[in-house]
Amino acid sequence: MAFELPKLPYAYNALEPHIDAKTMEIHHGKHHNAYVTNLNNAIAGSDTEKLSIEDICKGISKLAPAVRNNGGGHFNHSLFWTIMKPNGGGKPSGDLATAIDSAFGSFEEFQKQFANAAATRFGSGWAWLVVSGGKLVVSSTPNQDNPLMDVAEVKGIPILGLDVWEHAYYLNYQNRRPDYVTAFWNVINWDEVAARFKTA
Ligand code: MN3
Fold this sequence. Notes:
The relative contact order is 0.16. Helix 1 runs antiparallel to helix 3. A 3-stranded antiparallel beta sheet has the order 2-1-3. It has helices at residues 21-43, 53-58, 65-82, 94-104, 107-120, 170-173, 177-184, 190-199, and strands spanning 125-132, 135-142, 157-163. The longest helix has 23 residues, at 21-43. The two termini are 26 Å apart. The chain is built from 8 helices and 3 strands. By secondary structure, the protein is mainly alpha-helical. The structure holds manganese (III) ion. Residues 27, 31, 77, 163, 165, 167-168 line the site of manganese (III) ion (MN3).
């Protein structure tokens, strides 16, 4: 069963003005679509075809670079679309809010650490909020790596991720990555992040 590009759960323009429609259209329809196509091509006819995308990531050190890049790309973007929504933002509540306070001291301190991870990831990559060893941590990965991968510096289950590749923001923000990171807080779907936290 080949992997498929998931449908975006909202319209391309739904995250404006924080993330513009053209960026979303190219990001989902071209970039993510290419990761799916290239992943399917890279695993065609091999045993890897029988694995879930999560299991592919967990054993990535034994697989080809094309699977790492495109499998990571497919997992990361599939998560990314769901943890955003129109009229999102605000703060988490319930168990997730409690866990963030207990891990970072406050929501604001978590935001500071996450924004710093996003800003200081050199070149292309992702910033993450990860359930790692039973607690919440902030990390970042290069390229299309993610915390599920056995090669990741911080291993665990990602519940929030921010794409800091230039293709994710350059049309609207050019070189101003910090402005894009600031805008991201307005589109986070905390209900989805909380649901992922619950099952992590
Ligand atoms: Mn991307």
